[in-house]
From TrEMBL, chain A:
Protein's UniProt keywords contain Endoplasmic reticulum: yes
Annotated Gene3D superfamilies: Zn peptidases
SUPFAM superfamilies in the record: Zn-dependent exopeptidases
Name under which the protein is recorded: GPI-anchor transamidase component GPAA1
GN (gene name): GPAA1
From TrEMBL, chain B:
Family matches, as PANTHER family: GPI TRANSAMIDASE COMPONENT PIG-T, GPI TRANSAMIDASE COMPONENT PIG-T-RELATED
Name assigned to this protein: Phosphatidylinositol glycan anchor biosynthesis class T
Annotated segments matching region Disordered: 38-92
Species of provenance: Scleropages formosus
GO cellular component: GPI-anchor transamidase complex
Gene: PIGT
UniProt feature, compositional bias: Basic and acidic residues: 46-61
Annotated signal peptide: 1-27
Listed Low complexity bias regions: 74-90
Keyword Signal part of the UniProt annotation: yes
One Gene Ontology biological process: attachment of GPI anchor to protein
Length: 625, 641
């Protein structure tokens, strides 16, 4: 500690840091990006392994054989669904009762804040049907959930068929130690949200539902099944849940272990694992898989019905059957066996899944990157903010050339940074946050007015209002300067240290904001840091205005979203044109707002209430007079 | 004042419950005895058989006596009793019963009841009971050593599904339950309780020794003595539940050893563990209580009642076919009664099947009997194992029930049932919801709700709400004993009036405590159990609801509904809860300790250093020449430069 307490050496250190600040920042940024890209390189990652002893060594023998019968049930279900023009509730109740389950229904209704144009729904009414297989000699304290969404059209019938087939088979077995809940939810996520809220008797999103009458205690794990074809070529595992939460890695390991055992092709993010990690193609496949995961996680939306379970500390994943043009085909019996095996292993659990990682990235199903490995990538980016803050602090502390002659007294050679500058800092802070609040609240509040005055639909009105407020926020900094000179003198605007203080605050604000975000949702934090940190590091009022303004707009949160959409489509191997991209951008914004209102996703409020104001502060600095 | 009156009314209600219960049991007994006499009258040609049985009974008795230390056989016992001329010879009886009730869900419910009654008094002054015949000595000694007046212990695996199975004959919560009334002569009840639980733990090979002050309560109203006696102050009552207790063969074996015939003869041969544990529900229980010796209640007798309640599942045990037989259920058939028993019968509930249109019984029942059980008049087919005709030519009884129609899958609507769950998410707070259903169409009735919550769930008792039909329902009696950390649990007892055809919801919020790290169980991520709530009530009976009963009975008996039949006592247990507490990552403590210490040492230490140190500008060090000159001056003794 002599380094800090010795004034000379301290001075030397600060000198070094201020002198080498810019190169250090650049090195940090490059190192951060390189570290991140290196995460997908196989020699740097760990092989996945089962941590949970209860699921580890004892292999179960799968005996499910009723795949064909499940298909017959699926066809029957499809016919009933077609006849009813929706979910055949009575048929499902009877079918589950005939299989010896305790059957209950739950009806729910929800009016969306504005119509969802992707799924064409506005006022949603539906019914969930669930049957509980009571475990023999268990006191209803623990449960497992197998769910299948009842989607309109002809998709997902096979999932319901298989669910009923498994229910029948499971009912005849003696070994269950946990109740098993078979759930068919209508209106996918909305139904799931209603069911989960009903089960836990919470109401976070203002949905109305009828209370549940049967429960199975605390749910330990859940699997959601999506199958739309009689035979499949591969199974895809979906892990990303609400707000970027992930289930325990052991659930993914379990799926992978059974795929290996039974011989089913398994993918994650729709990408099959390659064996040639040392080739460029192999590495690129791993990077693409990981980037897809990062983008999906950063979006903060549930990517399957499992996504809503995670809020309740229930480990959950979706298993999606893919039918592509591959030669290798798998029938429903095999999928049933896989699920049987997974459920028997989950049934063996003595504790909740907790042994393995909750924070991880998967470059492939057999490799993972744990939090300890990926956090340095973010840490390197965040270090830039601290370096810049240190630099600014030192600059503020040392006599600035512009202000030195104005000061007479020797005691005040060090101008206190928070003397006259407080007001100058407070004004932009408040104004930018008010803009954020407007961005958060106005789109939905003003949709009616917008629809009346402009020829747009409600959804378009919401999205366009949001974009308009976002853009209008850019014009604000010019207005923060008060026309009244006295106020201006009071607030100390226009001085050199004025913007420095503001920047210092903005940088600290951003460091805390991004740090907290990255702890909860690494992907979101990292993507935001990737674009916001360079802006924050190099913005001053003295850089070329037009060019910098252009760069800043390109690196703003909104543009980040736009780029992410293009990258995502590129990674999905479905490239889109600019116009399509723009349309997708609009729909993604509306989906983001809906996710927040329907399921409580936090990305939209985070961006509008915190990240965007923070970025506006930097914008303010650029136009500092 | 009003509170006191309420309590008095409540106690009266509970006493009535107890009496009703006892009287129902007595009525059952009376019916049994009546039937016995009839059957004896009918069958008088079996002298030889009876002789053989009595021979065998004597053999077993002598054998039994050999095991207990006092050697006297039956003749010498009579002589010894004549020597102590003051007391008459104490008699003991053993009765065994098996009741089979086909359930509407297609499952089947078998309830074994074994009653050992001994007309003696353990606590008579100056008399030490040391000669045991049918009554198990281990329990008898326990009773006299700890001055136990009444003891009820049950071990249950599974949860009774009221919505599918209706009410059980003897309700029991999942896990182990123990409640004991001590004699009012006991000074140190807690000490006796502690020792008693440890002894019982040894007798039943169960974890009853885990009962300590943190899960023991003294309920004021919910558990009243079921036997005769007049002490009802809860000071002498201890109640504890271990919801996590797992019941297995190691508990069944000592339980069977308490029977006079063991599992060698009689109904107990059916209790093969591999079948009993291949079921949906299994409950073993032992109840000891003082009962009246006769109708006049001139002396007390001790009753030991051992019960096994088991439900076999239609799909897993029955392979989905609605066809049940002794062999299918127990993989055994009956060949003889216990020779020591005075009565040994099999009852099969045929109430829903008066004309045999639903299912057929094979062999056909020799006789029928009726009994009012749980407020409902039921008809039973009776097979008397003491009658040799019962066993037929094959010398074995394998009753077969074969359904003619597929069963219904609808849920029942039991008049009273309850359920409980934890609401909310996250690991900080939560809410316990208890739902109590009154499905009676027009009668309201009060229930007593007993909630025992461990101390590590800190109840916010001010958030307690009781709602019926979306209106507040004010309990007329609340007894709340707050918890003490690591010492005692919360105890909440309430008397709630349930409006007809309603759901009453009791909610209370709680906070999850952070335990000390040695207090966690070895599997902390499994969660922590909260025992079942107990709902005790006098439920209006189905018989009283029945409007067509005038047809069957004489007119003079039916104008005013009979008191005994108008309501009956029911105890309903809700599910236990599994609650997750905030749990540290136990693989990490070492890392955390190291990291924290480092952070504290480096961060705090340096900060402290910087804050407290006073900085001084150091004099530039003198040059070499000056130092040399100073050294010379020092040696010379002159002041330094």
């Amino acid at each position: 500690m002599g380094l800090l307490s010795d004034p000379n050496r301290r001075r030397a250190l600060t000198n070094l840091l201020t002198r080498l600040n810019t190169p250090l920042c650049i090195v940090c940024y490059l190192a951060g990006v390189a570290w991140f890209m290196g995460l997908a390189f196989e020699p740097f990652t760990l092989r996945t392994y089962m941590s949970e002893n209860a699921m580890g060594s004892t292999m179960v023998e799968e005996r499910f054989l009723a795949g064909e019968r499940a298909l017959v049930t699926a066809r029957e279900f499809a016919a009933q669904k077609k006849k009813m023009g929706g979910m055949p509730v009575d048929w499902l109740v009877k079918a589950m009762q005939a299989r010896g389950l305790e059957v209950f229904t739950q009806s729910f209704s929800r009016t969306l804040p504005f119509p969802d144009e992707n799924k064409e729904r506005y006022m949603v009414h539906g019914t969930n049907v669930y049957g509980i297989l009571r475990a023999p000699r268990a006191p209803r304290t623990e449960a497992l959930v197998l769910s299948a969404p009842c989607t309109p059209g002809s998709s997902n019938n096979q999932a319901v068929g298989l669910l009923l087939g498994l229910a029948q088979y499971f009912r005849g077995q003696m070994y269950w130690a946990k109740d098993i809940i078979f759930l068919v939810n209508e209106h996918d996520l909305i139904g799931m949200q209603a069911w989960l809220e009903g089960y836990h008797h919470t109401n976070t999103t203002g949905m109305s539902w009828t209370p549940l009458e049967g429960r199975g205690g605390s749910i330990q794990a859940a699997l959601s099944l999506e199958l739309s074809s009689d035979i499949i070529t591969s199974l895809d595992l979906v892990l990303e849940g609400l707000n970027g939460q992930l289930p325990n890695l052991d659930l993914a390991n379990l799926f992978y272990a059974f795929c290996q055992k039974i011989g089913v092709l398994c993918t994650i993010q729709g990408k099959l694992q390659r064996n040639d990690w040392d080739s460029a193609a192999g590495y690129s496949q791993a990077v693409q898989t990981m980037l897809l995961m990062v983008l999906k996680q950063a979006s903060g939306r549930p990517w399957g019905d499992h996504g809503l379970f995670l809020r309740y500390h229930i480990e959950a994943a979706s298993i999606r059957g893919i039918n592509s043009f591959r030669q290798y085909k798998t029938d429903l019996t095999t999928v049933g066996k896989l699920l049987e095996g997974m459920f028997r292993k989950l049934n063996n659990l003595l504790e909740r899944l907790h042994q393995s990682y909750f924070f991880y990235l998967l470059p492939s199903l057999s490799r993972f990157v744990s939090i300890g490995y990926y956090m340095p990538a973010f840490g390197l980016l965040a270090a830039i903010l601290l370096l810049r803050a240190l630099d600014l602090w030192v600059q503020l502390g040392s006599p600035a050339p512009g202000t030195e002659d104005g000061l007479v007294d020797g005691e005040q050679v060090r101008p206190t940074p928070f003397g006259p500058g407080v007001l100058s800092v407070l004004t932009p802070l408040i104004i930018s946050h008010l803009t954020g609040v407007a961005l958060y609240t106005l789109p939905i509040m003003a949709q009616q007015t917008a629809v009346e005055h402009f020829p747009v639909s409600e959804t378009e009105a919401v999205v366009l209002t949001a974009i308009a407020i976002y853009t209008a926020g850019l014009a604000l900094p010019h207005n923060t300067h008060s026309p009244c000179p006295s106020v201006r003198v009071l607030s100390g605007e226009g001085t050199e240290e004025g913007w420095r203080v503001l920047k210092l605050i903005a940088i600290f604000y951003m460091a805390v904001l991004l740090g907290c975000t990255a702890l909860i949702n690494f992907s979101l934090g990292f993507i935001l840091a990737l674009t916001l940190v360079p802006v924050a590091a190099f913005i001053t009022p003295h850089v070329p205005r037009v060019l910098s303004a252009l760069v800043m707009v390109l690196l703003s949160p909104g543009s980040t979203l736009l780029f992410s959409i293009f990258v995502y489509q590129e990674l999905q191997e479905a490239p889109i044109t600019l116009l399509e991209g723009w349309n997708l951008f609009l729909s993604v914004i509306s989906q983001g707002i809906l996710d927040h209102n329907l399921y409580g996703s936090l990305v939209y409020p985070l961006i509008s209430l915190l990240v965007y104001p923070c970025w506006l502060l930097l914008w303010n600095i650029l136009f500092w007079k | 004042m009003t509170a006191g009156r309420c309590t008095a009314a409540l106690l009266a209600a509970v006493l009535v419950c107890g009496l009703t219960c006892a009287s129902t049991a007595a009525a059952e007994e009376a019916i049994t005895e009546e039937y016995e006499s009839i059957s004896n009258a009918n069958e008088h040609v079996q002298a030889q058989d009876d002789y053989a049985r009595s021979q065998k009974r004597r053999e077993i008795t002598e054998h039994d006596d050999d095991q207990n230390e006092p050697p006297p056989s039956s003749s010498s016992s009579s002589s010894s009793s004549s020597s102590s001329s003051s007391s008459p010879p104490s008699k003991d009886y053993f009765k065994e019963e098996l009741v089979i009730r086909p359930l509407s869900s297609g499952d089947i419910y078998a309830s074994f009841q074994f009653q050992t009654r001994w007309d003696t008094d353990f606590f008579a002054p100056g008399k030490k009971v040391s000669h045991y015949r049918l009554f198990p000595k281990s329990l008898g000694q326990l009773m006299s050593k700890f001055s136990v007046r009444e003891m009820h212990v049950s071990f249950t695996q599974g949860y009774w599904r009221t919505m599918q199975w209706g009410q059980p004959f003897l309700p029991a919560p999942p896990g182990a339950e123990l409640w004991v009334w001590f004699q009012d002569s006991v000074a140190d009840v807690d000490g006796a309780w502690k020792e008693l639980t440890n002894v019982l733990s040894g007798i039943f090979c169960a974890s009853l020794n885990f009962i300590d002050s943190t899960n023991t309560v003294e309920p004021t109203a919910s558990f009243k003595p079921l036997g005769v006696g007049n002490v009802t102050h809860q000071r002498f009552l201890r109640y504890a539940v271990l919801p996590r207790e797992i019941v297995c063969t190691e508990n069944l074996t000592p339980w069977k050893k308490l029977l006079p015939c063991g599992s060698k003869a009689g109904l107990a041969v059916l209790m093969k563990s591999e079948k009993l544990f291949h079921s949906s529900f299994l409950s073993l229980a032992v109840h000891i209580r003082p009962v009246c010796q006769d109708w006049g209640c001139k002396g007390t007798a001790w009753e030991l009642r051992q019960t096994v309640n088991v439900v076999f599942d239609l799909h897993t045990t029955g392979q989905g076919k609605r066809e049940w037989s002794f062999f299918k259920m127990f993989s055994r058939t009956l060949t003889e009664a216990c020779p020591l028993a005075t009565s040994s019968k099999v009852y099969i509930d045929v109430t829903d099947n008066p004309q045999g249109e639903l299912f057929e019984l094979n062999p056909a029942a020799p006789s029928l009997t009726q009994a009012v059980v749980l407020g409902d008049r039921r008809t039973y087919a009776v097979y008397d194992l003491m009658a040799s005709g019962t066993f037929g030519l094959l010398r074995s009884l394998n009753v077969l029930l074969r359904w003619k129609t597929p069963g219904s899958v609808d849920m029942l609507r039991p008049l009273l049932h309850g359920e409980r769950y934890v609401a909310g998410y996250g690991l900080q707070t939560g809410e316990i919801h208890t739902l109590i259903y009154n499905n009676h169409p027009y009668r309201a009735f009060p229930v007593l709700l007993l909630d025992i919550v461990p101390w590590y769930l800190r109840l916010y008792i001010h958030t307690l709400t009781v709602t019926s039909k979306s209106r507040e329902n004010k309990p007329s009696y609340i007894h709340y004993q707050p918890s003490k950390d690591r010492l005692r649990p919360h105890l909440l007892e309430m008397l709630i009036q349930l409006p007809p055809n309603s759901v009453t919801e009791v909610t209370v919020q709680f906070e999850r405590a952070l335990l000390k790290w040695t207090e966690y169980t070895p599997d902390p991520n499994h969660g922590f159990y909260v025992g079942s709530s107990v709902i005790s009530a006098l439920v209006p009976s189905v018989v009283a609801m029945d409007t067509s009963y005038t047809l069957e009975h004489p007119l003079f008996s039916t104008f005013f509904p009979c008191k005994e039949e108008s309501s009956y006592f029911v105890r309903v247990y809700t599910e236990p809860l599994l609650v997750n507490l905030p749990t540290p990552d136990f693989s990490m403590p070492y890392n955390v300790i190291c990291l924290t210490c480092t952070v504290v040492a480096v961060g705090y230490g340096s900060l402290y250093n910087l804050l407290t140190r006073t900085f001084q500008v150091e004099e530039p060090s003198p040059g070499v020449v000056k130092r040399l000159a100073n050294m010379i001056r020092y040696l010379r003794g002159v002041p330094l430069l």
